[in-house]
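$ fold --in a.seq
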Amino acid sequence: SMLRSEKSAAGSRGGASFEGNEIIKMSSERVVFYLAVLIAAVVSILVSSIAAGPIALLVWLIFKHFLCDYLLQTGAMLRDKANLGRIGGYLHGGLHAVGSGIVLVFFAPWWLALVIMGAEFVVHVLLDWGKAQWVQRLNITEANPRFWHLFGLDQWLHALTYLVIALVVFR
């Protein structure tokens, strides 16, 4: 293959060689990351262009959730959610609150967006902390089906949060 010949050529020229295709792996992971964001954004634009009001708001809140929970969450945020004495869970909740604020400025008065941001920060931090507490208490990992039951419950509760936000905005 072309990659193998480039590695051989680099090695025979005395150039740096790389093991395990780390550079290509990093590049392909970055491509997948940006492709996922692009696809999610395009779908959100398409759906919200044919839907109005609460449905459009929900589409953008779910897109924000995808970004904040899956693409922008750091290892420290993930690790710290089980401990209210550490900053990572608060940073994660803040990321969600700011993301929701960006969405809400297109749907609600600024003061309502601020109130919702504060409420979502508290609710998001507590939901994630609660799930992390159960995972720790049950001493389970991703290999255990109970982990995925808790994960699903957590995601469902976050979705309900977005439904409540839509109800408040469009009351």
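$ fold --in b.seq
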Amino acid sequence: LNINGTYASTLESVLTKILKNSDAELAKYLPCGSADKITDSCIIAFVTSFGDKAFRRPLDAVEVARYVQVYNSIKTNFTPSEALASTAEAILRSPYTHFRSELGVADGSDKGSVKLSALELATALAFSVTNSSPDVELIKAAESGALTMPGGIETQVRRLMATEPFVLSYT
């Protein structure tokens, strides 16, 4: 995997801005309210919520455990707030944040065809229509099965075409 210098430089600039004053922003994802009150269940909930949004899919148990371990390792030498910011940075630096991977699952046919999962379909749809990640409503439609029902994709495309990200991406 090769990332060009311009992309890497832009990524560094964006991460620096995001994490510079991150305490208040990251606290939004903490069910315990602040970095000073982080418990094991709180950091697991943070990693799950923040990671799901960053990766545009649910994290699996191994991924959650990995990022919880990042937090626990860092908090031994730094403040909980610094450990939280470092955990968020690790998630934001993951290739799953930067690259889309709609791989699908085997559809059971002998032809080797694959079918996108509902969340993969939501991601592909969102990027195709708005040039951005799926919004909350599209994620909910994917998770509930509404997106894959007859008319589900058309309903979401029409809704997305009425949003500001659509207008901004095509003007």
